Fold this protein.
Amino acid sequence: MNPLSWMLPPSASTFAGDIDRLYYLILIITGIAFVVVQVGLVWFLIKYRDRPGRTVHYTHGSVKAEVIWTAVPTVTVVIIGLLSGRVWNQIKGRESVPENALPISILAKQFEWHVTYPGPDGVTGGSDDFTIRNQLHVPVGRAVVMSMTAEDVIHAFNVPAFRLKQDVVPGMTIRAWFQATEPGTYELGCAELCGLGHYRMRAVVTVHAQDEYDQWMRTARQTTAQR
Amino acid sequence: MTSLATPVESHVQAHPDNRSFIQKYIFSTDHKIIGIQFLLMSLLFLTVGGMLAMIIRWQLGYPNKPLPGGTVLPETMAPGGVILPEFYTSAVTMHGTIMVFFAIMPLLVGVFGNFLIPLKIGAPDMAFPRINMASFWVAVPAGILMIAGFFVEGGHASAGWTSYAPLSADPEYTGVTAGQRIWCVSLIVLGLSSILGSMNYITTVINMRAPGMTWFRLPLSIWALFITSILVLLAIPILSGAVIMLLFDDVLGTHFFLPAQGGQPLLWQHLFWFFGHPEVYILILPAMGFVSDILSNGARKPIFGYHSMVYALIAIGFLGWIVWGHHMFQSGMNPTLGTSFMISTMLIAVPSAIKVFNWLGTLWGGKIRFHVPMMHALAFVSMFVIGGLSGVFMASTPVDIYIHDTYFIVAHLHYVLFGGSLFAIFGAVTFWYPKMFGRMMNPTLGKIHFVLTFVFYNLVFFPMHQLGLQGHMRRIYDPTIYDFLKPLGGLNRFITISAFLLFASQLLFAYNFIVSWFRGKKAPANPWEDTGLEWTTPSPPPHGNWPATPHVHQPPYEFNSPHVKESDFLPQTQSLDAIPGRSSAGAAH
């Protein structure tokens, strides 16, 4: 990996592609604006530098120029806004959680993540649930919906590979979903300053193939039941 | 000209000065002295804020290695020179707090609001000189208090400069008791200073403009300070109110922000950012104003699109109130509200773009002089463009999901606040230094300082975009905890080394500033051949500023006007009738 790259690191969730495409679109648009303005600036500095014989073009401005450079940025940002709004609704909109998503509860506290998985009844909140600290296990290719709350202060659920970040707020239960696309392990790190141990509020996300996940779930239920 | 300002013939004019040393330099009511007092105080805080940044950078570049010279720090901060996590979070908190409230804001508003407004509008002093003195002497205890917080048991506030509740509202969560309370009280006291100052600036601009200084003859620096003062007057009371509620939660057992007893953590964020976003514009609008003055002077051309520039300032002043929610896209706020705030945020990019294009238009066809203030002003334009463009990424709600709370944000805000505001401050200090102190700063040292600062600044902050794009979170004490951040260790060290060199380069500025004060070349009245009113009086101006009230006949930026051939600039006080063979008819714009 080239640390000076403007490319985003590999992603592993269904909506990551939409976010990355928007990012690259904005990168191209702002990149063009950046080059035009900076090159223009340097060019002007060279061309119009003070030297003998240069005469100044005395002017107070141009209405035509003002109209152009008001209209072009306005149209550009409105288009970016409309495209963004659509993707935003698909990821974070209240209606965006796919049906049949696998429910998981998350309780964040200084400085750990408590992940509660549903028991055999398939829903969280029953007495058959079990909780594991700092490990999030999910199956690949299936939407997972997390009901998240915090015990003490505000934390933020943040898995860069899934392009998902959501503050976890005490006194609120916030739902967020994702669907992993690649089996493997990923890192979950708190993104909102939550105290002196903020930096080590880390958990591991394991994305399993479905049969491997079922196997893990059976073992986990047994071992947590024995405790 | 129908909108002539009410002529003010002042009775307080330059007169022999028989005040004692204390009246003249300590408890002074002279706006120029108060401006210089604010300057010295905020440069001191700028240094403290910079030192805190060095502590932060050391820990990020060389986690858990002893800070060079760090053994002077007490055991509670850095035993054996190794920075503790609790001290790191304090340093992060106080770097932000000090830079925003005690360095950049007073540098822009306290210093230049005081120094420039009367001198540029042709007034002998502020409308309320004693309130002006009070505004400085209220800021001093606030500053002493904020520094004292480092030395109390439990350390200084460590909930971030944004002080998000509940972390900030209950000592149980941070282990910080006295520090957080000191933070609150200091900001409440400082807020009083800002309110006193801003009402003074507003009144002065409205009431004390010299005859002929119409609204549309005001230099853009004054327009910017005027709009900024209105923002300060409206925004600071919101902060004070919110901070009082926070203090009550902590001390009196109220539960505004504590959820267990029915409080709302998000309420703090709404209140804080309802203040905080106008605050962001408080920290950039005056910079835009100073840069406009300096660019026009350096280009030897009138500012391009003066009226657009004024309307853009006003538009930013209004829109700045309805964008605060973009700090809260991922906070759990209703996502539909997120979309509304995205649209308003996208729109505020437009007046910023208008300003950039008009600055370019000002340079176009000019005859550019590269004096030190001009170099800083040009750097401002270039860096502000980067900060503005990177803002589009986080304005887009879906992209913000990924980059929120990462180093991409840190890069963005420093491109606006350092690349923008601080370069403008360097430009403004070097531009008006001769007027303040009656002496010139050394231009060679100034140019070396500029080049070093510009290079190291970019080496520090540009790669932070890349850190953020790789997912590097903000405010983390040790990034090596995370596997995905381990490959960034080299880049973090590179940034740290560059940051130390950036800090060291500022010693040149400090040396130039201090030595020029005593040994600098005597400054003439108008060293930059500028058109502003302040350059028609000696450097430094006497008490009362002018022997007689100046009369204004010209718009602010008449460089290379076709009406004069003798020099390339037409001072605002110059009447065309006074020049033989010319009529003022052609000067009406």
